[in-house]
Amino acid sequence: MLSGRTADMFTWNDFSTTLASWFVPLSKRRRLQEKYLRLIQGDRTVMIYERELTHLSRFAGTMQRGENEKCSRFVDGLRDSLRQSLMTMLNVDYKSLVDTARKLEAGRRCKSMTVSVRNDLRMHLSSSRARIARVENGTRNRGQEPKEVTRLGPR
Predict the structure, then answer these.
(1) Measured between alpha carbons, how far is residue 68 from residues 18, 74, 100 in Å?
(2) pTM, entire model
(3) Phi, psi of 5 (to 5 degrees)
């Protein structure tokens, strides 16, 4: 019997909390609980944020009683753009919520990369056009007279 409970009433959460109290000093547990409460996604990917949140949730104790609290805490720490998209999904299971967040992030990253590639291509084309114009205008040699170009091969 542990903490006045019989073995059949002792849940995994009770066991891990009791074990942590034996091996993790109270000051460290409190520090980890604070870190859990303040954790936000920031510049992490959804996958890394979720992994760190899950790790810290072991020290949350009674702060995280069930699936709904876990989902709420996950969504609360996400970037604004993802949080707004997932606010309506708080009644689904945690795994589905995380999976949806990953897909949204991947879709946005892909869209962002497409825009970035498109912008890079535009910049490259405009600089290529400028180089061609300079050569055609004879300004490639910085103010000097353009050299006569001898063409090799048949005309």
Answers:
(1) 23, 10, 16
(2) 0.60
(3) -115, 150
